[in-house]
Structures are given as C-alpha cells and as structure tokens.
Amino acid sequence: MMSDTVNSLGFAKPPSETRVVVAMSGGVDSSVVAGLLAREGYDVIGITLQLYDHGAAIARKGACCAGQDIHDARSVAARLGIPHYVLDYESRFRQSVIDDFAESYVQGETPIPCIRCNQRVKFRDLLETARDLGADCLATGHYVQRAVSADGSPELHKGADPRRDQSYFLYTTTREQLDYLRFPLGGLEKPAVRKLAEDFGLVVADKPDSQDICFVPNGDYASVVAKLRPEAAEAGEIVDAQGNLLGRHDGVIHFTVGQRKGIGIAGPEPLYVLRLDAARRRVIVGPRAALARTDVLLRELNWLDAQPIPPEGRAVTVKLRSAQPAVAAVIRPGPETDAGASTARLDLMTAEFGVAPGQAGVVYDGDRLLGGGWIARASQAAGTSAAA
C-alpha cells in the first residue's frame, strides 16, 4: 500500500527510485517477495548465497541453498526480469555456522544453526553486501512483521500466521539491522503466498518447504558432527543422577536433553536424558519429574526493546524451543560475563521439561519480540513443584 509520500517499504520516494536486495533461497517464500516488489515497481536485485559444496548439495531435496535451489532462484529471477547474483559464502558459512554447530555438540549442547546463520551470515555479511550495492533495504521471506513505534523505532513482531511464525529464529537481530530489514510476507498466510507464486508463474509455486538443516543430510546430525569432531562420537557411560552405571552409549552426539526414545535401557519407569556431561562422555538419565526446570540463565543476551530490563524484573512470555508455545515468566538482568556480554535470568511461572543448553530462550511482550539469548543452564528453584 502507498500513500502520496511514503512507499510500501516506508521510504519517502517512488518504488522505482528505491533499490531492494532480496535474499533468494530458491524457495517459494523469498521468490514471492521478489515477485511482489518487482510488481510494485521497485529496483529489485536478487542474491542467492552458495553456502556449501555443490557436489554434496545438488541431490539434496527439502533444504535451502543447495544446487537445485540456486538453479530455481535463477529461474525465478529470469521470470521476473530482475538481476540475480550468486555469492560464494562457503568459507564464511563453514567458520560461522557449521564449525559452531559441531563445537556445540561437543560441549553437550543442542544447537540451532539457523539462528547462527541469520546472525552471522544473512543479517551481517549479506546485509553489508546489500549496502555496498546501494540498496535502501534488504528484504527476506521470513514470516515476521516489522512495525514502527510511536517514537520511530523499528519493532519485530510475530508473523500473522502462528503456524509459520519465524520470530524465534530472528531474536539475534539488532536494532540497527532491523532498521534496514523488511519482511513483506509477515502479514500473509502460506496458502496466500503459494497462490501469489502461481499468479506470478513461478516454477517454485509447488516446491515443498525446507524441513532439514541445509547442511545435514536426512537429519543425521550425528554423522556430520562425527566427521568434524570425531571425539564427540567416542563411547561412554549412561548413568543415573547418583552416578550409578546403567549402560553404555556410542557418543553424546546421539542424545539431547529431554530425549526419551533411543536410550536403550529398560527400567520400571521411562527414562529421559537429564543432562550431558560431555567432558566425561556421560549421559545422565532419570525420570521425567527430574527434568522440571523453573530457573533459566540466558547468555549472549540480545535486547531489542528500548527500555532495559528493570532490576526488579519484567513479566514476559518466553519460548524455550521453536516448536513449543510461549510460557509465562519474569525476566531479570543477569551478571555480565568476563567478555562483557550481557546475561539474563528467567523465572518460569510453571516448571518446563526438557530445557536444553544450546537452545534459545526468546522473550515476548504479547506478539512483540523483546529479545533473547542462548540457554546456558537451567535448574529447578527450591520448593518448586514439578507438576505439569
């Protein structure tokens, strides 16, 4: 929608004088973004990132940035009549995302590489490339909404379609980055996006959504980590919370906190992974009640709200895994680390189960994303009931 002075992207000039770089993964979402902006008359440039070796990627289906996806992005750009470039970010991606992913597993964490990719590649390196090309903004196909507050500051809100909302994966976005970013699909639902792709005559209109982490074939995280960090695949012990030996395992990389299936030990009650002691190659297991957590420490806090977290705390909701609903909590400032990074503490109103170090704790005020951090550790406050 346009007014007499401000175009649909919020700039006080005609679309034809507004240059937009669109991050095109080769999927339907980013392709429709390019189509919408081209239809409105913007000066659109499509950029696709080559993030890892084509030889391993060409046969991959259901993952972003593979060889077929680059081909699809080129085809879409040609259909829309916009320039398209493929940039080789393979070495940056390996260092910033894949190596970090493997190292997190070695430390006994459960990492989320998609967040690191947004933080260290797409919204840092690609954003700078867009600036170098003279673009007024960088647009992506994420299902989130960007709003502007009364004082003119940009805000990040959940996507209108709760089934597609991707705000959890974008909590590391800084205020400066958010000022430059645009998310044209935030107010749409997926069926409407596919209908637009059909209307534009795009080859990706019926393309399946990405399901796996792009560099992990068939969801087999363990094999990828084992190649990069063989020590993570070393055998070790499965013990209970008191340290009693219950069995053995083939590597901590095969386990995550909260896991029930695949432990391989029979008992009078179901056993869950309570903790991973990667240094001693131990998997600690126990009953579900022992998973209850009410006190969560977040590290590397990124806070988008203009108001800092008050010492007495602030009532919020928080998502502790991407697929779980947000739960009520109080957030308080935590101690600064030796490196000067901020932390925060979350007091959960009810106990949560399977809170895993390496996942993200993402904080909201209603639909507005306030910030978040990586889960460093979690514990159960004294006297808290484990009932759920």
Automatic annotation (TrEMBL):
Q: Lyase: present as a keyword of the record?
A: no
What catalytic activity does the UniProt entry give for this protein?
S-sulfanyl-L-cysteinyl-[protein] + uridine(34) in tRNA + AH2 + ATP = 2-thiouridine(34) in tRNA + L-cysteinyl-[protein] + A + AMP + diphosphate + H(+)
**Where in the cell is the protein located?**
Cytoplasm
In this chain the tRNA-specific 2-thiouridylase MnmA-like central domain maps to 233-286
Q: Where is the active site?
A: 117, 214
What keywords were assigned to this record? ATP-binding, Cytoplasm, Disulfide bond, Nucleotide-binding, RNA-binding, Transferase, tRNA processing, tRNA-binding
* Molecular function as annotated in GO: tRNA-uridine 2-sulfurtransferase activity
The residues forming a coiled coil are none
Per its UniProt entry, which superkingdom is the organism in? Answer: Bacteria
Q: Where is this site: Interaction with tRNA?
A: 142, 359
Where does the protein principally reside? cytoplasm
Q: Where is the tRNA-specific 2-thiouridylase MnmA-like C-terminal domain?
A: 296-375
| Primary enzyme class | transferase
Which protein is depicted?
A: tRNA-specific 2-thiouridylase MnmA
Q: Which organism is it from?
A: Ferrovibrio xuzhouensis
